[in-house]
Amino acid sequence: MRILTFGAFDILHYGHMRLLERAAQRGDYLIVGLASDTLIASRGKPEPFYSFDIRREMLLHTRHVDEVVLHDGPVDGAGRVKLITEKVRLIRDMKIDEIVMGSDWAGEYDVFAQHCAVHYLDRTPGISTSCIRKQL
Ligand code: CTP
Asked: How confident is the model at residue 74 (pLDDT cuts 50, 70, 90)?
């Protein structure tokens, strides 16, 4: 089973690690569609603390992630639809069997259910990149 998950994974923390560990256990090859720096900033969030290359490197140093691919897309008004198209292309090209996301995304990925299985995992409470940034 080839598993795909999406995210920014900035300032990698134990909530991310638990998500990645459980996602990896659902298959035998885990791919992360890692949001580009511009994609993150376009969602009304501050620029990532770590650049795409560093975030990618950190993920590949975990024992859960097999591959990291760039997840990028248009950030204009039609962005949402085009990002869906981009994700469908990834699912097809990477021969994905299942998308796994944290429960904060529950329902949001159901649109891909016609292309592969979609599964949500409980989010780890009490930790997030935004919360770390605030505390720092
Ligand atoms: N995640 C999780 N538990 C957490 C934080 C994140 O399971 N405590 C999961 C998310 O549900 C998502 C993935 O990790 O599937 C990547 O999340 P991301 O948005 O990069 O991390 P956050 O810490 O949620 O970042 P932010 O505070 O910017 O929203």
From this structure: low
Which of 106, 86, 105 has its CA nearest to residue 94?
A: 86
Cα 135 to ligand 1 centroid, rounded to whole Å: 16
pLDDT at 82 over 60: yes
pTM of the model: 0.95
Angle at 99 between CA 47 and CA 55, to 5 degrees: 30
Atom of ligand 1 nearest to the CA of 101: 15
Q: Domain range holding 12?
A: 2-135
Question: How many domains does the chain fold into?
Answer: 1
| CA nearest ligand 1 atom 17, residue | 7
Ligand 1 atom at minimal distance to the Cα of residue 11: 23
Query: Domain holding 25: CATH number?
Result: 3.40.50.620
